[in-house]
Specification:
Elements (H helix, E strand, L loop, with lengths): L10 H8 L2 H13 L29 E4 L5 E4 L6 E3 L2 H9 L31 H6 L4 E5 H4 L3 H5 L5 E4 L4 H14 L3 H21 L5 E7 L5 E4 L4 H8 L3 E2 L13 E3 L2 H7 L3 E5 L9 H4 L10 H4 L4 E3 L1 H6 L5 H15 L2
Parallel strand pairs: 3-4, 4-5, 6-8, 6-10, 10-11
Antiparallel strand pairs: 1-2, 6-7, 7-9
Helix pairs in contact: 7-8, 8-14
Length: 338
Protein backbone atom coordinates (compact mmCIF):
# COMPACT_ATOMS: atom_id res chain seq x y z
CA UNK A 1 0.00 0.00 0.00
CA UNK A 2 1.27 3.46 -0.88
CA UNK A 3 2.14 5.83 1.93
CA UNK A 4 -0.39 8.56 2.67
CA UNK A 5 0.59 11.83 0.96
CA UNK A 6 1.54 14.58 3.41
CA UNK A 7 -0.34 17.84 3.22
CA UNK A 8 1.32 20.75 1.38
CA UNK A 9 -0.39 23.69 3.07
CA UNK A 10 2.62 24.27 5.32
CA UNK A 11 4.96 25.05 2.43
CA UNK A 12 4.69 28.85 2.60
CA UNK A 13 5.35 28.91 6.35
CA UNK A 14 8.33 26.56 5.94
CA UNK A 15 9.67 28.61 3.04
CA UNK A 16 9.96 31.59 5.38
CA UNK A 17 11.78 29.40 7.88
CA UNK A 18 14.06 28.03 5.17
CA UNK A 19 15.12 31.49 4.04
CA UNK A 20 16.02 32.72 7.53
CA UNK A 21 19.53 34.25 7.64
CA UNK A 22 21.34 31.39 9.34
CA UNK A 23 19.91 28.68 7.19
CA UNK A 24 20.27 30.73 4.05
CA UNK A 25 23.96 31.18 4.74
CA UNK A 26 24.39 27.45 5.22
CA UNK A 27 22.59 26.66 1.99
CA UNK A 28 24.60 29.24 0.09
CA UNK A 29 27.74 27.48 1.24
CA UNK A 30 26.52 24.46 -0.64
CA UNK A 31 25.17 26.02 -3.77
CA UNK A 32 27.90 28.59 -4.22
CA UNK A 33 30.42 25.77 -4.43
CA UNK A 34 28.43 23.61 -6.83
CA UNK A 35 29.79 23.92 -10.34
CA UNK A 36 28.24 22.85 -13.60
CA UNK A 37 29.41 19.46 -14.71
CA UNK A 38 29.94 17.93 -18.14
CA UNK A 39 26.67 16.00 -17.94
CA UNK A 40 25.59 14.16 -21.06
CA UNK A 41 22.03 13.18 -21.87
CA UNK A 42 21.04 9.76 -23.07
CA UNK A 43 19.59 9.52 -26.51
CA UNK A 44 17.43 6.99 -28.23
CA UNK A 45 19.41 7.67 -31.40
CA UNK A 46 22.82 6.02 -31.44
CA UNK A 47 25.38 5.73 -34.20
CA UNK A 48 27.04 2.34 -34.47
CA UNK A 49 30.74 2.54 -35.31
CA UNK A 50 31.40 1.28 -38.81
CA UNK A 51 34.16 -0.75 -40.44
CA UNK A 52 34.60 -2.89 -37.35
CA UNK A 53 37.12 -5.71 -37.17
CA UNK A 54 35.53 -9.06 -36.15
CA UNK A 55 36.14 -10.06 -32.53
CA UNK A 56 39.45 -11.74 -31.88
CA UNK A 57 41.12 -10.62 -35.13
CA UNK A 58 44.08 -8.30 -35.35
CA UNK A 59 43.51 -4.77 -36.57
CA UNK A 60 45.33 -3.87 -39.75
CA UNK A 61 46.37 -0.35 -40.66
CA UNK A 62 45.60 1.95 -42.39
CA UNK A 63 42.19 1.60 -40.75
CA UNK A 64 38.97 3.42 -41.59
CA UNK A 65 36.42 3.82 -38.78
CA UNK A 66 33.23 5.74 -38.13
CA UNK A 67 32.94 7.36 -34.70
CA UNK A 68 29.77 8.06 -32.70
CA UNK A 69 29.27 11.38 -34.51
CA UNK A 70 29.13 9.57 -37.84
CA UNK A 71 32.52 10.94 -38.90
CA UNK A 72 34.84 8.83 -41.06
CA UNK A 73 38.40 8.79 -39.75
CA UNK A 74 41.49 7.14 -41.22
CA UNK A 75 44.03 5.76 -38.74
CA UNK A 76 47.33 5.30 -40.60
CA UNK A 77 49.11 3.29 -37.90
CA UNK A 78 48.51 1.88 -34.44
CA UNK A 79 48.35 4.85 -32.06
CA UNK A 80 51.00 5.00 -29.36
CA UNK A 81 50.71 8.61 -28.17
CA UNK A 82 47.08 9.24 -27.21
CA UNK A 83 45.60 12.33 -25.55
CA UNK A 84 42.17 12.16 -23.94
CA UNK A 85 40.18 15.35 -23.28
CA UNK A 86 37.31 14.07 -21.12
CA UNK A 87 36.81 11.51 -18.30
CA UNK A 88 34.63 9.37 -20.57
CA UNK A 89 37.44 9.20 -23.14
CA UNK A 90 40.10 8.48 -20.53
CA UNK A 91 38.17 5.71 -18.81
CA UNK A 92 37.17 4.10 -22.10
CA UNK A 93 40.80 4.00 -23.24
CA UNK A 94 42.18 2.60 -19.99
CA UNK A 95 39.36 0.05 -19.65
CA UNK A 96 40.69 -1.50 -22.86
CA UNK A 97 44.29 -1.65 -21.73
CA UNK A 98 45.34 1.53 -23.49
CA UNK A 99 47.31 4.40 -21.95
CA UNK A 100 47.42 8.13 -22.55
CA UNK A 101 50.23 10.69 -22.62
CA UNK A 102 47.95 13.58 -21.61
CA UNK A 103 44.48 14.09 -20.13
CA UNK A 104 42.01 16.75 -19.05
CA UNK A 105 42.02 17.89 -15.42
CA UNK A 106 38.68 16.16 -14.76
CA UNK A 107 40.06 12.69 -15.55
CA UNK A 108 40.80 11.21 -12.12
CA UNK A 109 40.37 7.52 -12.88
CA UNK A 110 42.17 5.19 -13.10
CA UNK A 111 44.67 6.42 -10.49
CA UNK A 112 47.65 6.04 -12.84
CA UNK A 113 46.15 8.64 -15.15
CA UNK A 114 46.51 11.33 -12.49
CA UNK A 115 50.27 11.56 -13.07
CA UNK A 116 49.80 12.53 -16.71
CA UNK A 117 50.32 16.07 -18.03
CA UNK A 118 47.05 17.98 -18.24
CA UNK A 119 45.68 19.90 -21.21
CA UNK A 120 42.99 21.95 -19.45
CA UNK A 121 39.49 21.15 -18.26
CA UNK A 122 36.98 19.15 -20.25
CA UNK A 123 35.04 22.33 -20.99
CA UNK A 124 38.11 24.29 -22.07
CA UNK A 125 40.89 21.96 -23.20
CA UNK A 126 43.82 23.67 -24.87
CA UNK A 127 44.58 22.56 -28.42
CA UNK A 128 48.03 24.09 -28.03
CA UNK A 129 48.71 21.97 -24.94
CA UNK A 130 47.54 18.89 -26.83
CA UNK A 131 49.78 19.70 -29.81
CA UNK A 132 52.78 20.22 -27.49
CA UNK A 133 52.48 16.56 -26.44
CA UNK A 134 52.94 15.45 -30.07
CA UNK A 135 50.07 12.91 -30.07
CA UNK A 136 49.14 10.55 -32.87
CA UNK A 137 45.49 10.27 -31.70
CA UNK A 138 43.09 12.50 -29.76
CA UNK A 139 39.93 11.08 -28.15
CA UNK A 140 37.16 13.56 -27.28
CA UNK A 141 33.63 13.27 -25.83
CA UNK A 142 30.89 13.79 -28.42
CA UNK A 143 28.16 15.66 -26.57
CA UNK A 144 30.17 18.21 -24.64
CA UNK A 145 33.10 18.68 -27.03
CA UNK A 146 31.73 18.40 -30.57
CA UNK A 147 32.09 22.17 -30.99
CA UNK A 148 35.84 21.80 -30.38
CA UNK A 149 36.36 19.39 -33.24
CA UNK A 150 37.51 21.95 -35.78
CA UNK A 151 40.09 23.27 -33.32
CA UNK A 152 41.53 19.84 -32.56
CA UNK A 153 41.57 18.85 -36.21
CA UNK A 154 44.05 21.67 -36.89
CA UNK A 155 46.64 19.65 -34.93
CA UNK A 156 46.83 17.33 -37.91
CA UNK A 157 46.26 13.97 -36.19
CA UNK A 158 43.16 11.73 -36.12
CA UNK A 159 40.45 12.79 -33.67
CA UNK A 160 37.75 10.28 -32.69
CA UNK A 161 34.66 10.99 -30.58
CA UNK A 162 33.19 8.66 -27.96
CA UNK A 163 30.00 8.99 -25.93
CA UNK A 164 28.51 7.26 -22.88
CA UNK A 165 25.02 8.66 -22.53
CA UNK A 166 23.37 5.25 -22.93
CA UNK A 167 24.29 1.57 -22.84
CA UNK A 168 24.43 1.51 -26.64
CA UNK A 169 26.82 4.47 -26.55
CA UNK A 170 29.07 2.76 -24.03
CA UNK A 171 29.22 -0.46 -26.05
CA UNK A 172 29.79 1.37 -29.33
CA UNK A 173 32.54 3.53 -27.85
CA UNK A 174 34.35 0.54 -26.33
CA UNK A 175 34.11 -1.29 -29.67
CA UNK A 176 35.40 1.73 -31.59
CA UNK A 177 38.39 2.45 -29.33
CA UNK A 178 39.18 -1.25 -29.05
CA UNK A 179 39.43 -1.46 -32.81
CA UNK A 180 41.51 1.70 -33.14
CA UNK A 181 44.12 0.61 -30.55
CA UNK A 182 43.98 -3.06 -31.62
CA UNK A 183 42.31 -4.45 -28.46
CA UNK A 184 39.01 -5.64 -29.93
CA UNK A 185 38.99 -8.75 -27.75
CA UNK A 186 39.34 -6.59 -24.63
CA UNK A 187 36.41 -4.51 -25.83
CA UNK A 188 34.23 -7.59 -26.19
CA UNK A 189 35.24 -8.78 -22.73
CA UNK A 190 34.55 -5.36 -21.20
CA UNK A 191 31.07 -5.19 -22.74
CA UNK A 192 30.26 -8.71 -21.54
CA UNK A 193 31.40 -7.89 -18.00
CA UNK A 194 29.38 -4.67 -17.87
CA UNK A 195 26.24 -6.39 -19.10
CA UNK A 196 26.72 -9.25 -16.64
CA UNK A 197 27.10 -6.87 -13.67
CA UNK A 198 24.00 -4.96 -14.68
CA UNK A 199 21.97 -8.14 -15.09
CA UNK A 200 23.18 -9.43 -11.72
CA UNK A 201 22.24 -6.15 -10.05
CA UNK A 202 18.77 -6.32 -11.58
CA UNK A 203 18.29 -9.75 -10.03
CA UNK A 204 19.04 -8.41 -6.55
CA UNK A 205 16.43 -5.65 -6.39
CA UNK A 206 12.73 -5.35 -7.05
CA UNK A 207 11.32 -3.11 -9.74
CA UNK A 208 8.66 -0.40 -9.60
CA UNK A 209 9.81 1.93 -6.83
CA UNK A 210 9.13 5.65 -7.33
CA UNK A 211 12.51 7.40 -7.32
CA UNK A 212 14.04 10.86 -7.59
CA UNK A 213 17.71 11.62 -8.28
CA UNK A 214 18.34 15.30 -7.62
CA UNK A 215 21.03 17.97 -7.85
CA UNK A 216 21.07 21.69 -6.93
CA UNK A 217 22.37 24.86 -8.54
CA UNK A 218 23.70 28.22 -7.41
CA UNK A 219 20.21 29.73 -7.39
CA UNK A 220 18.94 27.21 -4.84
CA UNK A 221 16.88 25.37 -7.43
CA UNK A 222 16.59 21.60 -7.36
CA UNK A 223 16.62 19.49 -10.51
CA UNK A 224 15.60 15.87 -11.01
CA UNK A 225 17.26 13.45 -13.42
CA UNK A 226 14.99 12.51 -16.33
CA UNK A 227 15.10 9.09 -18.02
CA UNK A 228 17.33 10.52 -20.78
CA UNK A 229 20.05 11.54 -18.32
CA UNK A 230 22.92 9.24 -17.34
CA UNK A 231 21.58 8.54 -13.82
CA UNK A 232 18.09 8.25 -15.31
CA UNK A 233 19.42 5.54 -17.64
CA UNK A 234 20.52 3.57 -14.59
CA UNK A 235 17.08 3.83 -12.99
CA UNK A 236 15.53 2.55 -16.21
CA UNK A 237 17.94 -0.38 -16.40
CA UNK A 238 16.89 -1.35 -12.86
CA UNK A 239 13.19 -1.06 -13.75
CA UNK A 240 12.42 1.82 -11.39
CA UNK A 241 9.71 4.46 -11.76
CA UNK A 242 11.41 7.78 -12.48
CA UNK A 243 9.19 10.58 -11.14
CA UNK A 244 10.78 13.09 -13.54
CA UNK A 245 9.64 11.18 -16.60
CA UNK A 246 7.73 13.30 -19.11
CA UNK A 247 8.85 16.63 -17.66
CA UNK A 248 10.64 19.15 -19.91
CA UNK A 249 14.36 19.85 -19.72
CA UNK A 250 15.02 22.97 -17.67
CA UNK A 251 17.96 24.52 -15.91
CA UNK A 252 21.71 24.17 -16.45
CA UNK A 253 21.92 20.37 -16.44
CA UNK A 254 21.08 18.56 -19.71
CA UNK A 255 18.66 15.73 -19.09
CA UNK A 256 17.44 17.24 -15.81
CA UNK A 257 14.23 19.13 -15.02
CA UNK A 258 13.28 21.66 -12.35
CA UNK A 259 11.60 19.84 -9.48
CA UNK A 260 9.84 21.74 -6.70
CA UNK A 261 8.96 20.89 -3.14
CA UNK A 262 5.30 20.92 -4.12
CA UNK A 263 5.95 18.30 -6.79
CA UNK A 264 7.92 16.20 -4.33
CA UNK A 265 5.05 16.27 -1.81
CA UNK A 266 2.55 15.22 -4.42
CA UNK A 267 4.75 12.38 -5.72
CA UNK A 268 5.92 11.19 -2.26
CA UNK A 269 8.82 9.12 -3.66
CA UNK A 270 9.88 5.81 -2.22
CA UNK A 271 13.53 6.80 -2.59
CA UNK A 272 15.47 10.03 -3.08
CA UNK A 273 19.13 10.18 -4.10
CA UNK A 274 21.19 13.38 -4.03
CA UNK A 275 24.27 14.35 -6.03
CA UNK A 276 26.51 17.01 -4.47
CA UNK A 277 29.43 17.96 -6.74
CA UNK A 278 30.81 20.58 -4.34
CA UNK A 279 33.75 19.30 -2.28
CA UNK A 280 34.07 19.68 1.50
CA UNK A 281 33.58 21.83 3.50
CA UNK A 282 30.36 22.48 1.58
CA UNK A 283 27.47 20.51 3.08
CA UNK A 284 25.84 17.75 1.09
CA UNK A 285 22.51 18.33 -0.64
CA UNK A 286 21.01 15.51 1.43
CA UNK A 287 21.89 17.49 4.56
CA UNK A 288 20.07 20.54 3.23
CA UNK A 289 16.81 18.86 2.23
CA UNK A 290 15.35 19.02 5.79
CA UNK A 291 15.39 22.81 5.32
CA UNK A 292 13.83 22.81 1.82
CA UNK A 293 10.05 23.44 1.90
CA UNK A 294 8.15 20.47 0.60
CA UNK A 295 11.09 18.11 0.60
CA UNK A 296 11.34 18.43 4.38
CA UNK A 297 7.94 16.76 4.81
CA UNK A 298 8.85 13.64 2.85
CA UNK A 299 9.08 10.47 4.92
CA UNK A 300 12.31 9.51 3.22
CA UNK A 301 13.84 12.87 4.24
CA UNK A 302 12.58 12.98 7.82
CA UNK A 303 13.85 9.42 8.31
CA UNK A 304 17.33 10.50 7.15
CA UNK A 305 17.29 7.95 4.34
CA UNK A 306 18.36 10.18 1.45
CA UNK A 307 21.52 8.67 -0.02
CA UNK A 308 24.36 10.60 -1.64
CA UNK A 309 25.59 9.37 -5.01
CA UNK A 310 29.25 9.78 -5.98
CA UNK A 311 29.27 12.68 -8.49
CA UNK A 312 32.24 11.22 -10.37
CA UNK A 313 30.63 7.82 -10.80
CA UNK A 314 27.12 9.06 -11.54
CA UNK A 315 27.81 12.24 -13.55
CA UNK A 316 31.33 13.28 -14.39
CA UNK A 317 32.90 9.99 -15.53
CA UNK A 318 30.14 8.39 -17.54
CA UNK A 319 31.22 5.20 -19.24
CA UNK A 320 32.72 1.80 -18.50
CA UNK A 321 32.09 1.98 -14.74
CA UNK A 322 28.32 2.01 -15.24
CA UNK A 323 28.16 -1.59 -13.96
CA UNK A 324 29.72 -0.54 -10.67
CA UNK A 325 27.39 2.44 -10.40
CA UNK A 326 24.30 0.31 -10.97
CA UNK A 327 25.42 -2.16 -8.31
CA UNK A 328 25.71 0.71 -5.82
CA UNK A 329 22.32 2.11 -6.82
CA UNK A 330 20.64 -1.29 -6.45
CA UNK A 331 22.16 -1.71 -2.99
CA UNK A 332 20.91 1.70 -1.87
CA UNK A 333 17.42 0.95 -3.19
CA UNK A 334 17.31 -2.26 -1.17
CA UNK A 335 18.40 -0.34 1.91
CA UNK A 336 15.99 2.59 1.80
CA UNK A 337 12.97 0.97 0.13
CA UNK A 338 13.14 -2.82 0.60
Amino acid sequence: MRKEKPYSNTIERERRCFTSPGKTALLLLLVSAIILLPIACSSTETTTPGTLTPTGTQTTYPLTVTDVLGRTIIIDQKPSRIVTTHPTATETLYRLGGTAIGRDTGSKYPPEAQSLPTIGGSYNPSAEAVADLNPDLVIIEALSQETLLSTFETIGVPVIAVRAASMDDIKNSLTLVGQVIDTSEAATQAITEIESRIEAAKQTTRTGRSVLIIIGDASRNIYAAKPDSYPGTMLALLGQDNLAEGLPDSGPYPGFTTYTGEQALTANPDAVFAISPAPAPAPKLSEMLPMVPGFNNLEIVTAGMVKELDPALFLQAQGPRIGEAIEILAGYLNEVAP
